[in-house]
Structures are given as C-alpha cells and as structure tokens.
Specification:
- The chain has about 250 residues and is of the alpha/beta class.
- The protein has one domain (about 15-245): P-loop containing nucleotide triphosphate hydrolases (Rossmann fold).
- It contains 10 helices and 7 strands.
- The chain has helices at about 5-10, 30-40, 50-60, 60-70, 80-90, 105-115, 130-140, 175-200, 210-225, 240-245, and strands at about 20-25, 45, 95-100, 125-130, 145, 165-170, 200-205.
- A 5-stranded parallel sheet has the order 2-3-1-4-7, with helices on both faces.
- It starts with 6 loop residues before the first helix and ends in a 9-residue tail after the last helix.
- The chain binds zinc ion.
- Zinc ion binds near residues 144, 146, 147, 160 and 163.
Length: about 250
C-alpha cells in the first residue's frame, strides 16, 4: 500500500488512542455504545454492516459487487468489506474512528492493520455480555428492514427511528439460529482477541448493564489509555480537556 498523504499525520498522531475497534457478540449493544463513544471523541462511527448496506443502497461500484455476491448466495470477501468501510473512514482514518463489526477474524484484523499503516489499531475494546443475556436480547429484537438499525422491544407496526421504514423481527433471530451464530462468533473472537492482545491495547468492558452504565464504562476504558484524549492534526490547538468534559445525551436504542 502507498503512504502518500498520510506520512505527516501519522507522525503527528503517534501514541494517541483514536483508532478504536469494538468487539462484541451480536446483541451486545455495540452499535449504541459505538455511537455514543464516537460522539464523545468527535470521530466517525462506522459499522461494517451499515457500510455494506449503504454501499448496496447507493449502487456504488463496491455496492454492486457486494450485491452480486450476496445474490449468488456467497460470502462477501474480507477485502470488499474493508473497501466498503474505507469509503466511510478513509479520509478520516488519520484523526480516528470507532469501528464495529470488523474485524471479526484474525485475517480481517491483519487486513485492517495493514491498511491503517503506521500505528495500526490504537485500541480494541471487547464489550462482554453473557450468552444468555444476548440470546434473550436478540430474541426480542426488531430491526429496520431497510437500514438495519436495531430497535429493541419495538411494537408490531413500528417504523424506523432513523429512516422511517418498517421495523420487523429478523427471520434468523430464533434461539437455535442465534446460538449457532454466537458459537461461530465466539470461536473467531478467541483467536482474534489473542492476536489483538499482541498487536494493540485490548480492554474488556462489562456490557451487562443499562446503556448509560455501559457507556460510562466504555468512556472510562478509553480515558484509561495513556494518551486517549490527545487531539490530533487539525485539533492540535486544543488540549485533552477539549474531549474530557463533553456532556453527551445517550440514545437508549
Ligand atoms: Zn431504518
């Protein structure tokens, strides 16, 4: 990969913890927590699932390729998923992002790390929620049929908070299918956390609580990183306090 355009910024941002990935089982509340964390850090939140859906919806070249693969019933290649994500964070990767849903495997983590170049991933946060709790949450969840946003506990006939389309249970959200997905996820995560613990800082956060309480723990985890609040490049005039005292309204979604 080339380094043009990034060299200076990478040097400037060395040692900061602003390129954050968040791991967690389906149903762990990653999306909500990543939204809140990204707002507090004033960086972009990208979910791999959202990035893919958006690419398909907008009919971009990446989206067309993804759609063709999905229509053929095949798995979307890791490189293609990363391209879809990069469409949303590429410009801002030097100043930071909060990413969830990718990487889920060691191979994906290596791809992302390579693409990020010098410094790689600054911090990985593992949002830990017990299996029984996520099975219970997923059995009750309703998702937007268009943009995929989770709406826990939505009533029948509800519409999406984000795009206004219909909200419905997912066909594969039955307990048997959920447990099979979780088992696969856990197998990959064990190898992934082992790799991450050797290549970046990895912090586990207890996610078995209210969204507000978990958000507080996530923030504490980020703050505990030595230079988590050091702003980078264009924000260089400000000091860490710029981010430390930001009050954030948390969405309960
Ligand atoms: Zn929607």
């Amino acid at each position: 990969m080339g380094t043009s355009g990034f060299g200076f910024v990478r040097t400037a941002r060395r040692g900061t913890a602003r390129r954050i990935i968040v791991l967690g089982r389906q149903g762990s509340g990653k999306g909500t927590q990543c939204d809140a964390l990204a707002r507090r850090l004033a960086v972009r939140h990208v979910s791999a699932g959202d990035a893919l859906r958006r690419a398909v919806r907008t009919g971009s070249p990446i989206g067309s390729a993804v759609e063709a693969i999905m229509e053929a019933g095949e798995l979307v290649d890791d490189n293609l998923v990363l391209e879809a994500i990069w469409d949303h964070i590429g410009d801002e990767a030097p100043s930071g992002f909060v990413l969830d849903g990718f990487p889920r495997t060691v191979e994906q983590a290596k791809l992302l790390d390579d693409r990020l170049g010098t410094g790689g991933i600054d911090l990985a946060i593992r949002l830990a929620v017990p299996v029984e709790e996520v099975v219970s949450r997923l059995s009750r969840r309703r998702v937007c049929t268009v943009c995929g946003l989770d709406h826990p506990g939505a009533e029948p006939g509800a519409t999406c908070d984000r795009c206004g389309n219909q909200v419905a249970p997912r066909a594969d959200d039955n307990p048997t299918a959920i447990r099979a997905r979780l088992a696969l996820y856990d197998r990959n995560e064990t190898a992934l956390t082992s790799w991450l613990s050797r290549h970046t800082d990895l912090i586990s956060v207890d996610g078995d609580s209210t969204p507000e309480a978990v958000a507080g723990r996530m923030w504490a985890a980020v703050k505990s990183h030595p230079s988590a609040l050091v702003p980078v490049n264009s924000h260089a005039h400000a000091t860490g306090s710029r981010f430390a005292d930001v009050a954030v309204g948390l969405s309960a979604g």
